Structure formats: structure tokens, C-alpha cells
């Protein structure tokens, strides 16, 4: 039996087939030579960058993308070319529509029978939804579910970071405990008590703005964490503490509206402690000192503060 005639241009036919195959893949795929110039891509990559293959071929990333993004791509390519093998990393990139996405690059060294085509081949996986979910889960893990301020876990973690920070001049940890909060629950009910906690936390956040971190430690106890960096510290520790205590004390005179005919002012006691990273502090000692100052304020009649 006669065999079918052999294709007179097998390399061209194979190239066309491979190009059609990668065009069918919905994941953006690209390949560059060792100079960093694009030598090919699939249709998904054209859509991703908003340019046709003809506009990409022969151009370097620095000629096509924003300098910051181009530098990230270039450095990653150089690292792969120097080390060989494969490379996987995450980055934030700008799509053709101007939106930014979280993506994962999967790249490897491209070796062909044509030296001028050797370089890097890569695929881009969009992981924006996954990263958004991770950010949401972190926010949930770090946020008090009722008041939406930071929770105990998060402020403890921040304390850990502060105690390791060599550039920190000092920090102040403030513990706040609402006085006679149980009476609010007993008189108006737990929903009213919850509303009071929410309103109080909002006022704390508004008062602090960007100056410090506000957290609910648990129950009717809150905390504030303030830091002063060496480069910009313009207040002594005493001045910083007093600058916070004045508006905190003023807040006691402001009514909190819990509902129709439910208005009250709430008192609270405050304990503050200074944190100096080079004084061998531990988280336990910081919390103990703040609690001791808080209890002292309560013993002295509530509605005040102690250091």
C-alpha cells in the first residue's frame, strides 16, 4: 500500500498547529528571547495586554508597560535566565482595561533548535478572586465582629511587631474599661448594650483618626495603641499621653443615643503604659502595667485615668 505523501513543510505545519493549540488555551501565554523581547504569545495574552501580537513581537517590557511593572517582569526574567529551571511567583499587574489584578506567573526556560529564539516562556493565572478572599478572611480574623474595630488578636500581633521595631522611639498602650456597663444591659437590654459598644468604638476611631490603632479586647474593654518613630517624634511620652487623654475625657460628656428616649453618657476608666522597645519589655509586662494603671483609676473613683 502506498503511503500518503509527506508534508513538504512539516515545520510550518507543526508551528501552525502549536499556535492554534495555545490560542485555544484561555490562560495568557507568552515567550521572549534572552534579550527580553517578545517573540510570541497566544490570543489570551493579546487580550490581557490589549495589544496584538504584531504590536508585541520584537519589543521589550520597558517599551510596553509602566516602569514599575516592567522592572518587576525584567528582574524576574533575569533571575530565571541566570538560574535556569522553572519559576513561580505572584505579582500585581495592570490589565488592558486599566484594572489591576493579582496573578501568578509560571515560567520556565525556553530551549529550541534556534538559539536566537531561546529565552523564557510563561503563563499567567489570574488569582484575584482567591487573593480577595484571603484579604477578606484576614480582615475577619483581625476584626471584632460586633464593633468592626480591631480585635485582641490583631492588637497583640501589633504589640509583637512594636517590641521588635528598632526604629521606634516609644509607644503607648492604653486600656479602657467602661464603668458599670452591666447596668446598661440590665436596664435597657443586651441589644442596647451592643449598640452602646458600637457607638463608643466609632467615637474612639473618629477621635483617633490615623494617629493610632483602636481595638476591642473583649466585653466592654477597649485598647488604643500609639507609636512614635524616631525620625518624626515631636512629643515626649507624657505629652503624647496627655494629648490623648484630653479628648478621651471629653468624650465622657457626650451622649450616646441608643434609641427613642434612650440617651445616656457612659463613664470609663483608663490605664496607660509607656512602651520603650530597648527596655526589655514583653507583651505580658505591657498588658500587666496597663491593667494595673486601669485598676488604680477605678480604685480612685472611676471616670479617670492613671499611668
Low-confidence stretches: 1-6
Strand order of the largest sheet: 6-8-9-7-12-13
Strand content: 25-35%
Rounded average pLDDT: 84
The first-to-last residue Cα distance is 101 Å
Principal-axes geometry comes out as elongated
Helix percentage range:
40-55%
Largest sheet: 6 strands, mixed
Radius of gyration: 30 Å
**Which structural class best describes the helix and strand composition?**
alpha+beta
Tally of alpha and pi helices:
11
Query: Number of DSSP strands?
Result: 13
Element-by-element helix/strand order: HEEHHHHEEEHEHEHHEEHEEEHE
Oligomer: single chain
Summarize the structure.
The protein is an alpha+beta fold. The protein has eleven helices and 13 strands. 44% of the residues lie in helices and 27% in strands.
Describe the 3D structure.
There is one protein chain. With 307 residues, the protein is an alpha+beta fold. Helices cover 44% and strands 27% of the residues. It is built from 11 helices and 13 strands. The strands form 3 sheets. It has a 6-stranded mixed sheet with strand order 6-8-9-7-12-13, sandwiched between helices. A hairpin with an 8-residue loop joins strand 4 (100-110) and strand 5 (119-126). Helix 8 (181-188) packs across helix 9 (190-208) and helix 9 packs across helix 10 (237-251). 26% of the residues are buried.
Amino acid at each position: 500500500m502506498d503511503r500518503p505523501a509527506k508534508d513538504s513543510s512539516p515545520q510550518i505545519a507543526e508551528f501552525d498547529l502549536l499556535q492554534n493549540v495555545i490560542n485555544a488555551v484561555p490562560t495568557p501565554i507568552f515567550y521572549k528571547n534572552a534579550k527580553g523581547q517578545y517573540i510570541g504569545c497566544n490570543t489570551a495574552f493579546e487580550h490581557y495586554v490589549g495589544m496584538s501580537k504584531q504590536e508585541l513581537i520584537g519589543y521589550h517590557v520597558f517599551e510596553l508597560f509602566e516602569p514599575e511593572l516592567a522592572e518587576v517582569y525584567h528582574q524576574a526574567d533575569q533571575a530565571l535566565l541566570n538560574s535556569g529551571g522553572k519559576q513561580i511567583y505572584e505579582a500585581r499587574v495592570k490589565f488592558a482595561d486599566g484594572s489591576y489584578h493579582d496573578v501568578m506567573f509560571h515560567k520556565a526556560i525556553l530551549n529550541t533548535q534556534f538559539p536566537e529564539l531561546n529565552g523564557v516562556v510563561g503563563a499567567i493565572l489570574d488569582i484575584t478572586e482567591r487573593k480577595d478572599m484571603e484579604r477578606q478572611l484576614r480582615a475577619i480574623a483581625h476584626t471584632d465582629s460586633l464593633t468592626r474595630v480591631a480585635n485582641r488578636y490583631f492588637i497583640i500581633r501589633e504589640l509583637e511587631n512594636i517590641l521588635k521595631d528598632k526604629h521606634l522611639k516609644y509607644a503607648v498602650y492604653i486600656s479602657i474599661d467602661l464603668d458599670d456597663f452591666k447596668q446598661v444591659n440590665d436596664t435597657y437590654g443586651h441589644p442596647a448594650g451592643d449598640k452602646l459598644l458600637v457607638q463608643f468604638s466609632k467615637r474612639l476611631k473618629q477621635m483617633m483618626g490615623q494617629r493610632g490603632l483602636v481595638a476591642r479586647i473583649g466585653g466592654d474593654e477597649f485598647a488604643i495603641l500609639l507609636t512614635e518613630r524616631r525620625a518624626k517624634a515631636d512629643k515626649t511620652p507624657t505629652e503624647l499621653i496627655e494629648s490623648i487623654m484630653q479628648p478621651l475625657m471629653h468624650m465622657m460628656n457626650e451622649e450616646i443615643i441608643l434609641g427613642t428616649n434612650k440617651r445616656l453618657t457612659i463613664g470609663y476608666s483608663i490605664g496607660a503604659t509607656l512602651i520603650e522597645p530597648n527596655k526589655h519589655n514583653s507583651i505580658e509586662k505591657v498588658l500587666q502595667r496597663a491593667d494595673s494603671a486601669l485598676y488604680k483609676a477605678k480604685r480612685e473613683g472611676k471616670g479617670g485615668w492613671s499611668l
